[in-house]
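Entry 14. Ran structure prediction on the chain below.
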Amino acid sequence: MIQCKPKTSTYFALGLIVITLVGGLIYTLNHFATQRTLSIFVYLFSTVLLTLVILLLLVKMMAAYKFISAGKGIILTRLPLRNQTKKYLLNQVLVWDEEQITTNKREFKQLTIVFDDKSSFSISNHEHINYEEFVKYIQKSMPKKKAPSKN
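Output, structure tokens:
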């Protein structure tokens, strides 16, 4: 059974960024409460901006925290933050597609699978381990269900 799960290094790096941004937000609020040497608009703009960026990063991290396993004719999807697990047979897959984008000499890949209950699942090579093995399994098991090329 092939298991794709989130990379620890990705979540560690994003976690450090979130902690740094929270530190900057705390510093800004503390500076406003104690010193107030800048304009009120600077404090307002910086706290709103920092809060929005923190929230967007947290939502991105929570949405990408998912597991998918495949083997023996089934695909098992698990979203631990929603406490949701779904089991699909390979014949329940409507279509799958892999997107590839090359930027700055790095290749980003994302696999999207759509199931017959209209739910979909996406994983990427930069956020999940065993991505290549999972794609090979999908290509071997369901070659006819690949989405037509966009070219």
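The chain is about 40% helix and 30% strand. Will compare against last week's run tomorrow.
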